[in-house]
């Protein structure tokens, strides 16, 4: 409070305005999720707000319906596959962009960003048509590849931002100690990159699990992921079951962020 006493009226008003905008923006981001979670515990058989009671009936029903459980398992498989592909492709690409000594590193970095800038619907349709041309039908694998192309930039940028902050003298010291480039990469660079790789893996898993815009065009008829199943569920029911499914996805996203925070800390993602 003492610091605010020395501010002019215009500065105090400016800081107050910024705080109000920040609080309002936070409410816009958080309030919808809170409302959905509250509705998921309602005792009534239709969506209404505010809820009249508290029950876990709808969460129990989520895990009793075979279609929803299968959709969760499909999304889990897609999320894990996307995460693995993003690690295998994204980490070497980030190394090439940040440490590469060849012409075109900037072009490579921009090229990786292009699919992420394209709307997911457009990319999903493009992958669907491309798969049809080569005889690949919609499936979990086509969906995983499409989502990987869409969000690979997340892994690349996360790892690359960590790389540019690493002191090159550490790798030079390893080379002076007669370490080969591979030994230097394995013993020096990778351990220092691990926080960024883990953070990128969490973000790509959540996106692969929850993606709808790409998955809706590339999933198979018998392996629908959870977001697509939820979209179909909304079309023929208005029960809090929809909110319960959404609550499960919200809990998964929060758990992923908590895991990153407890393991490496959110402040260390790009340090």
From TrEMBL:
Report domain ABC transmembrane type-1 positions. Answer: 72-263
TM region(s), chain numbering: 12-41, 78-98, 110-134, 140-159, 188-206, 241-266
Q: Which GO terms describe its biological process?
A: transmembrane transport
Gene3D superfamilies this protein is in?
MetI-like (1.10.3720.10)
Naming one, the record's GO cellular component terms include: plasma membrane
Q: Which domain of life is it from?
A: Bacteria
**Where's it found, cell-wise?**
Cell inner membrane; Cell membrane
> Which keywords does the record carry?
Cell inner membrane, Cell membrane, Membrane, Transmembrane, Transmembrane helix, Transport
PANTHER family with a match to the protein in the record = INNER MEMBRANE ABC TRANSPORTER PERMEASE PROTEIN YDCV
* Name the UniProt record assigns to this protein: ABC transporter permease
Write down the species. Answer: Roseicyclus persicicus
